[in-house]
Amino acid sequence: xxxxxxxxxxxxxxxxxxxxxxxxxxxxxxxxxxxxxxxxxxxxxxxxxxxxxxxxxxxxxxxxxxxxxxxxxxxxxxxxxxxxxxxxxxxxxxxxxxxxxxxxxxxxxxxxxxxxxxxxxxxxxxxxxxxxxxxxxxxxxxxxxxxxxxxxxxxxxxxxxxxxxxxxxxxxxxxxxxxxxxxxxxxxxxxxxxxxxxxxxxxxxxxxxxxxxxxxxxxxxxxxxxxxxxxxxxxxxxxxxxxxxxxxxxxxxxxxxxxxxx
Length: 262
Ligand code: PTJ
Known about the structure:
This protein is α/β, with parallel strands linked by helices.
């Protein structure tokens, strides 16, 4: 595969570099072909949000960090896109919160599971759950290959972070009584709507923000962490994200230009 050099002066260099990263990890068998399309949908929403971490997203980040820290058995679920864009962030967050890391794929194959495990381990993960025979338990409510989970991981988790997820799984995990945290740029997605805590932000920004928030909150008392979660209202937070897009589009519609408004 020919590697393209993106000039750092290109006005959309960051976005192009993220694409290149996904293409590279697609070639390595980590990202699925559908993962490239999924990223395109995410990019479109990032454009609408102004490609920045909003105050609203930071509120959800704080609630999510508190949930992971108070969890008795927190697990971070990694798929192809999440591993390609955030392996280091996943490992850091797992270290700070004591969460386990488990591979769970929509387009499951033994090769992809192993490739993702290798990537996470090269980013510093000591152990990666859910690979091949280790995913020996089944969650009946979930369709397809994602129903296979590790009995030591997602099956017994009380808090699960499922970035860039499919709605059915988020819904089933929530129905099982687990706290479901997601990172999803689309506030209208079924995942965003079913999760307990939805961070409407790009995973490349949200994961580092989560690790920082978890590090800061790790010094706080459990009572304080529980209050942060009970004060958080996901429906309200999602409404705010939709309102932000709406207001931004209204402003852009008045000015008729994208470039000057940020
Ligand atoms: O690796 P696999 O086999 O498990 O497959 C993973 C994908 C992503 C293909 C699979 O889970 C899938 O089909 O997901 P969906 O249903 O397309 O949902 C992905 C969601 O993530 C969409 O709502 C996108 O808007 C959102 N999204 C895409 N890229 C990003 C994102 N959210 C945050 N950051 C991104 N970079």
